[in-house]
Each structure stands twice: as structure tokens, then as C-alpha cells.
Amino acid sequence: MERAQKETVVGSIKDKFDRMSSAVFLDFKGLNVDKVSKLRDEFRKSGVEYRVVKNSLVRHAIKHHGWAKSLNTSLVGMTGVAWSYEDPSAAAKVITAFLKDPANDKLKLKVKAGLIDGQLLSADAVESQLATMQAPLQQFLQQLQAPAQTFVYLLKAKEDKANDGAPAAEG
Questions:
Q1: Alpha carbons 45 and 60: distance in angstroms, whole number
Q2: CA gap 60, 58 in Å, rounded
Q3: Nearest-CA neighbor of 71 among 109, 13, 24?
Q4: Which domains does the chain have, with CATH numbers?
Q5: pTM (2 decimals)?
Q6: How many CB atoms lie within 10 A of CB 94?
Q7: Measured between alpha carbons, how far is residue 161 from residues 77, 148, 150, 153, 171 in Å?
Q8: Which end of the chain has the smaller Cβ count within 10 Å, N or C?
């Protein structure tokens, strides 16, 4: 890869880490093309971007982050990165479901680490904590606002019903 091409790839990887809400690092050694394609499809359906990356390029792209050095031990061997941009738990949920599928019992897909809010998570923490996180704050706020919206609609319906029976105002 030429220097200019490397810089472009590093810039792209850096951008993904800068925009992400979380990332999960995978060792996908031993997965055949069919299984990798199925995993990629599931990621896509969940709004997760997945890419196989060279460890050296990732190291270069993240070097400006304080958490970069703590990730070095995970950046060995073959590495796939799943970036979630909205729901921080999306990638972890896809991976957990994939690993629980009996058809994937003999696969060697392994979580190396996770990253959320600048905090490095162990493989176990990705599967036990990140995968069980609730929906993002935005969805939580929508749920909080729903009862008030319903109440406003109820009042409007009641007003409309009361106006249906009233004589029309002359003007």
C-alpha cells in the first residue's frame, strides 16, 4: 500500500473511531466466507459498520486518544472492528446472538475487547454488560414524553367531541 493510500485508510479509520458510540474488536479466525457474510448482514441490519483492519493502521488512527495504549494488547492477530454509531450496544447484541446460535457452535469467533466512552471493556464485559445495555438516551426520552403526548391527544379529542355537539358560532 502506498503512503497516500495508507493515509486515506488511516483517516477513514480515525473518522469511524471519532464518530462511534462504541466499538467491538473481534478475532474472526476460522470463520468461512458464508459465516462472515451472515455476520456482516446482521451488522448492517443493526446499523453497525464492520471492517477487517490492519492492526498497525488502527494503532496509527487512534494514537491521539488517551485510551489507545490500553488497546494495544488486543490489536494482535486478525482483527475485525464493529463500530456502532447510535445504539452503543448494537454490535455487542449482534455478536452475542451470533455466538448463541447453535449453527455457530464450532466457530472460533472471539471478542477481543470493546470500547465505549473511552473505556476499554474486556471480552466478558462486552458480552455481559455492553450487550445488555438499554436503548440510547434519545429513545428513553421519547418513552418519557409519550404519556404527556397521549394526554394532549386525549384532551384534544375531548374538546373536539364537545365542539361536535355545540351549535356553530356565528361570526
A1: 29
A2: 5
A3: 24
A4: 3-134 (3.30.70.1730)
A5: 0.75
A6: 25
A7: 68, 20, 16, 12, 21
A8: C
C-alpha–C-alpha distance, residues 6 and 20, integer Å: 21
- C-alpha dist (Å) from residue 34 to 37, 39, 123: 5, 9, 24
C-alpha cell recorded at residue 82:
464493529
Q: Which three cell numbers stand for residue 153?
A: 391527544
- The DSSP-derived string for 24-93 is EEEE-TT--HHHHHHHHHHHHHTTEEEEEE-HHHHHHHHTTSTTHHHHGGG--SSEEEEEESS-TTHHHH
Cell digits of residue 20: 462511534
Q: Which of 132, 101, 126 is nearest to 26 (CA)?
A: 126
Cell of 115: 470500547
Q: Which residue has the higher pLDDT, 72 or 158?
A: 72
pLDDT per residue as tens digits for the range 82-123: 999 999 999 999 999 998 888 887 777 899 999 998 899 999
- Which residues face 22 on adjacent strands? 84, 116
At 71, list the grid cell: 488497546
